[in-house]
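Fold it.
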Amino acid sequence: MLAWSPLGRGVLTGKYRGAVPSDSRAASPHLGAFVSQYLDARATSVVEAVATAAAGLGREPLEVALAWLLARAGVASAIVGARTPGQLQASLAALDLVLPAELYDALDDVSAPEAGYPERWDGAPPL
């Protein structure tokens, strides 16, 4: 698989923690909806987990998020939307990062999709 927008449209970089920067895509009138779907409570818990892991490792959230993705079975590469040389350098820094197994598990747990119908179907039709 080739992962597109692996940083959740920039949300997994941590730049939207607490506020929407005025120069960001989320603040743009024509791109705000593109990002806003990734700014809900569930996404916030994933971002906080990534940021906590990054702080513990002395790395950036972007690096942890990309390393976590790239280590997944079946992911061949990721298409990052770096707009600046600094963003590209930060993305490339993820290539040498190997997360401890406990972090992979914790990030998988916090980001696991909620199972609903039909994943938890008990034989009765959903209401």
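The longest strand covers residues 2-4.
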